[in-house]
Design a protein that fits this description.
It contains 8 helices and 14 strands. The chain has 377 residues and is an alpha/beta fold.
Length: 377
């Protein structure tokens, strides 16, 4: 059989149907669809479209804004110490991969800044210090002389705050406060991380410490008819971040009491600890990570949280729908495997590429995504 030689030649709409039978591929231009060819088998494609990305501020952002919500009620001191002692586990990847991060800390009683409560606006302001004194920094950023030491100082908020935990209300109070203008950056992925041993009981109508009032609604009551729903706060965060249910540019994670076993274990220090039912609901609805305060150390929880933040913040939207089997990704000249652990995955619903594990590109990496479109234009 004579050897078949393939040569490149101009292609026109009226070109006749051509079939390559030498194990390469079959193409039909008489059809409106494109039969994609598998590149991994050294096959030939008549229509290859590549999208080239370079992870810089001018095109693909590596900006991450992170808000920490630290419960500062009684019994929280050991939990705060566990957090700061394991903070290196959280921040390490952000530093080594050159992320442009900005972190701020508030307490679970920041809602008291509202006029309906103590009417002290400064309570909503991001913390610049903790029990060890003021650091002079409202935000933790890569440009600080020692970001880790600064976070340790700020996140150690002590345990003499209000015992009426309203983390959700505190989040929105702080984010809407003019004292914190400039924190949220357009296009930056937004992450919220809550540390608390008692669930959220946000209610705009219930006075602080209402359990002291005769006939008042208990501060920790799921039957309170005015308890604000988790969905109402998801909706507020969606609006704040210009997100939708199918595409959220933020998530909420929590390290809290996850079950009765943990509650019993922690009960020796905090008899009033409550399983974080509403926290868990918020985590599920926003695609966050749930960690337990009863872990020996928070290293594992913090590692999972930072891993997900980094992966979500480095998603790449494609401008055309690809034939998934033809996607090839090259980072700094090296082919990245399709792998959900240390590679990339494609999500058809959002038409995005997500990097995972060691495959997450560093800042400034040259990223090239090639694929055959699913359909001709």
């Amino acid at each position: 059989m004579p050897r078949m030689i393939l040569t490149k030649q101009p292609m026109f709409i009226k070109r006749k149907v051509t079939t390559f039978v030498a194990g390469v591929c079959a193409l039909s231009l008489a059809s409106t669809s494109l039969l994609g060819c598998n590149r991994s088998q050294g096959s030939f494609s008549i229509l290859a479209t590549g999208q080239a990305f370079t992870q810089t501020k001018s095109d693909v952002t590596n900006q991450v804004d992170i808000l920490w919500v630290v419960d500062n009620s009684f019994s929280m001191d050991p939990l705060q110490q566990n957090l700061v002692q394991n903070f290196n586990t959280f921040i390490n990847n952000f530093q080594t991969k050159g992320f442009d991060y900005k972190m701020a800390v508030i307490t679970s009683d920041a809602f008291l800044a509202n006029p309906a409560f103590r009417n002290q606006p400064e309570m909503a302001k991001f913390r610049s210090g903790g029990v060890g004194g003021d650091t002079g920094y409202t935000y933790i950023t890569p440009s600080l002389p020692d970001p880790v030491a600064t976070f340790v100082s700020i996140a150690t908020q002590g345990q003499f705050g209000s015992g009426d935990e309203r983390a959700f209300s505190s989040i929105m109070t702080s984010l809407n406060s003019p004292l914190n203008d400039g924190f949220r950056r357009p296009g930056a992925f937004f992450a919220i991380i809550i540390l608390s041993d008692e669930d959220d009981f946000s209610d705009a109508t219930r006075p602080e410490g209402s359990w002291h009032q005769q006939g008042g609604v208990p501060d920790h009551s799921y039957t309170n008819p005015n308890l604000e729903t988790v969905d109402s706060y998801v909706s507020q965060l969606d609006t704040l971040t210009s997100s939708t249910a199918s595409k959220r540019n933020y998530n909420v994670s929590a390290i809290t009491v996850t079950d009765q076993t943990c509650r019993d274990q922690h009960g020796g220090q905090a008899p009033s600890s409550i399983i974080g039912t509403r926290y868990m609901d918020m985590v599920t609805k926003t695609g966050g990570v749930l960690g337990s305060i009863c872990d020996a150390s928070y290293a594992n929880s913090l590692e999972m949280i930072q891993k997900q933040i980094i992966e979500l913040s480095t998603q790449f939207p494609l401008t055309r729908e690809p034939n998934p089997s033809t996607i090839m990704i090259i980072v700094d000249g090296k082919v990245v495997p399709q792998d959900s652990i240390n590679g990339w995955t494609y999500d058809a619903a959002s038409n995005t590429i997500t990097f995972h594990g060691t495959a997450v590109p560093t800042s400034g990496a040259a990223i090239n995504i090639q694929f055959d479109p699913a359909q001709l234009l």
